[in-house]
Amino acid sequence: MDKPVLVTKPFLPPIEEYNKYLNMIWKSRWLTNQGPLHQQFIAELKEYLGIPCVTLTVNGHLALEIALRGLGISGEVITTPFTFASTTHAISLCGAKPVFCDIRDEEFTIDPNLIESLITEKTTAIMPVHVYGHLCDVEKISDIAHKYNLKVIYDAAHAFGCRYLGRSIASFGDVSMFSFHATKVFNTIEGGALAYCDPSHEELFNAYKNFGIENEESVPYIGGNAKMNEFQAAMGLANLPYMEKIIADRKKSTLCYRELLANIPGIRMFTPDKKAQYIYNYAYLPVEIDAKEFGLTRDALVLALRSDDIFARKYFFPITSEYRCYKDALHGANVPVAERAGRRVMTLPLYYGMGLDTVEYVCDCIRKKAKRV
Ligand code: T4K
User: Fold this and answer.
1) Looking at the predicted structure, is the pLDDT value of residue 373 above 60?
2) What are the phi and psi torsion angles at 153 (to 5°)?
3) Cβ(12) to ligand 1 under 6 A?
4) Distance separating the N- and C-terminal Cα atoms of the chain
5) Is ligand 1 within 6 A of the CB of residue 319?
6) What is the structure's pLDDT at 187?
7) Is the CB of 8 under 6 A from ligand 1?
8) If 128 and its partner were Cys, which of 103, 110, 307, 319 is the partner (CB 3.0–4.6 Å)?
């Protein structure tokens, strides 16, 4: 059994399989700047996703910034505060104003019924998050975007491997960003990708990740450096064949959690995999704690589990509208459901190769802390 039990652990391929790519790098001496492994990884991702355009980046956050800049987003962007810092910061760093919309209590994704009331003449885009890999209401969001001529940029950092209506989740909206950080279902150490269907975005997205350069003698755009290097691409190539195995293993642990925690009062679990035509990736194991029913607050439970060497996390607390850098500037966000989720939700350890004995240990420790079981 694993100890300490961390909230996650990166998947690593058999080392020989990574070495095979390292040997290629040593031979070619091509380390970065759209090298051969980078090109191969793009081709394999396009095939895996069934999406015609993929732009790779050094991390997911810079991919979000590039998407916003590449689509010419300015003014106001309607988004969710129940997310990691990156989503809201990307909007701000691109010079736009994040406008916080509340979330649905069922799955913590943006509440489409509240979006229209936040639209002003300055609104240019919606940036929803498939938080934990839970599917946003892509149909309603698309209807609103069409009605008001808004762009939709999905923060799909958690949703690599998810499919809806037989298509990759990245086929919805103008562009989707996947994070390939070490802590994600699929990793390239650090890394990210933009996936999109309209090839007219490709030129700008690619330029913005490479100093705005078009060719050796032409620099038509102002861009930074967000290129994925060959070592990252190698990890992606080595890990991609394991996606099915990774998801199946995470599913096994998730189902075990659901069974063992089912009868503990005050613990609410989520079943996004029950949504019709949705293939979920089992990215996180969020649970919501009702302190009265359970006998401890979420915060007290997170702390108590540490003494058992279990490191659950408060993803996502504080919600981004409560960050010091936004609270004063953007006062008055009306997001009661997100505030409540921020106070009550925690994510339990979940990773490839966790083993059911470790899941049982975590559940046992939680059970012992509950008020009456
Ligand atoms: N949008 C959303 C919705 C996101 O959640 C994220 C990132 C982004 C955008 C931006 O994507 P990236 O630019 O990161 O690609 C982690 C991740 O660093 C971050 O990628 C992720 N979301 C966020 C939710 O979680 P921390 O600060 O909580 O990570 P840390 O270092 O505390 O690690 C978590 C656990 O993982 C630890 O218990 C130890 C374990 N771990 C971690 C690393 C890095 C390992 O076992 N090995 C490792 O190499 O942010």
Assistant:
1) no
2) -115, 110
3) no
4) 25
5) no
6) 98
7) yes
8) 110
